[in-house]
What does this fold into?
Amino acid sequence: AGFIGSNFVHYWCDRYPEDKVVVLDALTYAGNRANLAELEMQSQFRFVPGDIGDRNLVDTLLSSEQIDTLAHFAAESHVDRSILGPGAFIQTNVVGTFTLLEAFRQHWENRLKPQKLDADAVFLHVSTDEVYGSLGPDDPAFSETTPYAPNSPYSASKAGSDHLVRAYFHTYGVPTVITNCSNNYGPYQFPEKLIPLMCINALIGKNLPVYGDGQNIRDWLYVGDHCSALDAVIHRGKRGETYNIGGNNEVKNLDLVKMLCQLMDELAPNLPIQPCSQLITFVKDRLGHDRRYAINANKIKTELGWTPSVTVEMGLRQTVEWYLNHRDWWEVLLSEEYQAYYRQVYA
It folds into this structure.
């Protein structure tokens, strides 16, 4: 019920209405059952509140629902929060992934294989390009053979989970696939992330905090494109392989914020402060802030025929319009806990 996961569930239910989709989510601060409200009445959809670390619950769901495809989105994913409290990231991203892997391995060995239901079985592990570390301005983009060099507790925890997934394929033969994506954006993204943060702050007249000099570069991937890439990986990806997924949209953070400001000025003419670029405020840089991420997505293009279809200009416009039209969705997320976190990070 988080950002990427909920978008993927909507995508899958729309594309494959004959498939049963079971969502397991602990509904931590960034998980929101409202993201899936439109699906609650559909017979193909089932929501189960619970933790991926609850082995008995996971075992029961795999068996009772006869699940052959497990798409693992569950993660603590915000770098700033990993700096403030790394323990939760290790528990969810590493230990939680281990629990899912063990449960799926036994389900695959004891049920799917004996009943010859394993032909299309897959454990999809959705990960991040941050496991590769940071790039210089002229370095080649990350490929699937780039050595891991994580620089934050978040990326280190995801690197650990990637290694576990790979090991379960090579040790036990579990049909796994790993994807490493660039920065996602789009509907249902929690307000702490850069793009929704800028949109929401502009709407309420708060400063737009930009780390350091704003020259850090990210490759932006529209979440709808990410979903179609995961579809290709599930159906055509080679088991045991890793696929990088990128948007082919490298943009400096400051330039991205300026693009958002232009869109906000255009689409929301009654902003408290206009032009909203006046709100841009440079703040102390993030600890260990990676300078540049860039994805080489040639492998998924060559092997699976996937390429992104949404340019950053198109995607940002769609995203800004979504946040403008869903104020009731994000206003309830600006809780006291969120406000306290915001002050701690951007003070």
About this structure: The domain at 3-192+220-251+289-312 is CATH 3.40.50.720 (Rossmann fold).
